[in-house]
Amino acid sequence: MTAIFEMLGAITRRRKAEGGSPFASPKATERWLKHLHADSDYDAHHLLVEGLERFNAENAAPSVARLDSLSRLEDAGLPLQSRIVEQYVRNQATFRLARQALWRESWMFWSLLAEAWLGLLKEAYRRAASEELKAQRPAIAARALRYAGLVMRWEYHQARTPAESAWRRLHKIYRLVERDGYARHVLTLAGHGTSCVREYTLTVLMGLVNPLGYRAQEIEAIARILEAYPSLPLPSPVAIDGVHTHRVDLSLGEGAAVLDKDGVPGRRLRYFALAPLVRHLKAFDAGSGPEADGMHALTCQAASLIERGGVRRSRQRTQRFGRVWVAAGMERVLSALAHADPAPARPALEPWMLRDESCEGMGFALGEPAALPHGRLVAVTWDPGENVWQLLAVRWSRDEGGQHLIGTERLSRHPKRVQVYFEADVADVPSEQVSAVFLPMAPSEGGSSHLLLPRTHYRLGAAMMLREGEAVYRLRLGEVQESHEDWLRVGMDVVGREQLAAAA
């Protein structure tokens, strides 16, 4: 009788767990997937993304069953994701709003899968679940590396450089699989044979190509060519003169770089022999016709980027000394950008000594320390009378040789002060018109235009009006890119434009 009650109790507990979570067991996950009906691939994909979000939010004990549930979600999601990506790439020339939504859906899918598999990998090394999941570590780690790399690749679609934290996470996973000896363990993933080291290498190579400003079709084409290359150059812990051309430091938050002639060995340095891959890209045969010519030009450009790519910022910067005038802090930045204001009414500008400059930013040397938190916005000009400004953000500071060194990243070469306000039919938002800063990005720089506005005036997806001179633009606010104290730098889509008289 006791055994019967125990069995009934176990059944009750299992049903209660299944009722509380659609992913409590592999069978429960299958039932949830069978009811995943929607009117379109996009809607079905969105439901699956929500499911992955819920899966990651559950505080469930790791187990082989949990891994099986995640695998079923992955198997169901990958074909949908493939079709969503195909739509996204196809819609680049048209439907700007649609392509942004498709990009966001794809990025969320990769991000949630990366988070889920990384969480399982962590649990596979903890005492509670380590023995049960030990045999699955190579498969889990390969997926964690693959999806982390895809998240980084999707950042390139938005002309964003992957964050240092993303590179550190990737290097940390690879160090783990190398240490435990299954880096080259062959397994099947997404229908193809692969390994942890191969997935890691593909991400490193995309980082060397650094396709900022490339079109979506070009980024995905390069990725396919790299994935199809039969003799993918894998990392080696020992450098061989005349063979290895690049290296990556697993202790840093950055990708690979060209190998120095005076390079020294290191415990966390890994070396790549990329000369054969470069020759393959330069000689790549895509057939005949205009499209083939364009593909050949693309692969040659990718080869050139790999050959000279990856040089660290400290070597990219050119020494350039001289005095510039700086307005530090958002209040002073707004005043500096106000063309109509008389010069005496502006806050006093500070003279800073320029130390070096690159395409990405500027370095300064100050005689004494200044209270400049990271992220502080600064406007820079060589001549205040010309009213030509650049907008930068402070990224690092340190004391060296009696000087206070400042490193900044350029956000825009042509910032513009504008007025913004919400449309009358937008509920629960401030009604007043306020100043903001429009950050246009030149097409040659391969970036996206952003808007700096007060934190109080941000609503994701809200319609906002932007006035610049006699023109009024209707915007749709996108995601927050970065917080600058009480100001937010956000993405946006321009929905329409009209002259002020017509708008009135």
Q: How many structurally independent domains?
A: 3
Residue runs with pLDDT of under 50 for 5 or more positions: 11-18, 310-317, 340-345
Radius of gyration: 26 Å
Strand order of the largest sheet: 6-7-8-11-10-9
Q: Cα distance, first to last residue?
A: 83 Å
The total count of strands amounts to: 17
Explain how this protein is built.
With 504 residues, the chain is an alpha+beta fold. The chain folds into three domains: 20-191; 317-412, Thrombin, subunit H; 416-503, no CATH class. The protein is 42% helix and 23% strand. The protein has 15 helices and 17 strands. It has helices spanning 2-20, 26-34, 41-57, 64-90, 96-123, 130-133, 137-157, 164-179, 196-209, 216-228, 275-282, 290-308, 313-316, 330-337, 500-503; strands at residues 187-189, 192-194, 246-249, 257-258, 269-272, 318-328, 350-357, 361-366, 377-381, 390-400, 403-412, 416-422, 434-439, 450-454, 463-468, 471-484, 487-499. A hairpin with an 8-residue loop joins β9 and β10 (390-400). α5 (96-123) packs antiparallel against α7 and α7 packs antiparallel against α8. The chain is globular and about 65 Å long. The model is unreliable at 11-18, 310-317 and 340-345 (pLDDT under 50).
Q: How are the SSEs placed, and which strands pair?
A:
Layout: H1 2-20, H2 26-34, H3 41-57, H4 64-90, H5 96-123, H6 130-133, H7 137-157, H8 164-179, E1 187-189, E2 192-194, H9 196-209, H10 216-228, E3 246-249, E4 257-258, E5 269-272, H11 275-282, H12 290-308, H13 313-316, E6 318-328, H14 330-337, E7 350-357, E8 361-366, E9 377-381, E10 390-400, E11 403-412, E12 416-422, E13 434-439, E14 450-454, E15 463-468, E16 471-484, E17 487-499, H15 500-503
Helix pairs in contact: 2-4, 3-4, 3-5, 4-5, 5-7, 7-8, 7-9, 11-12
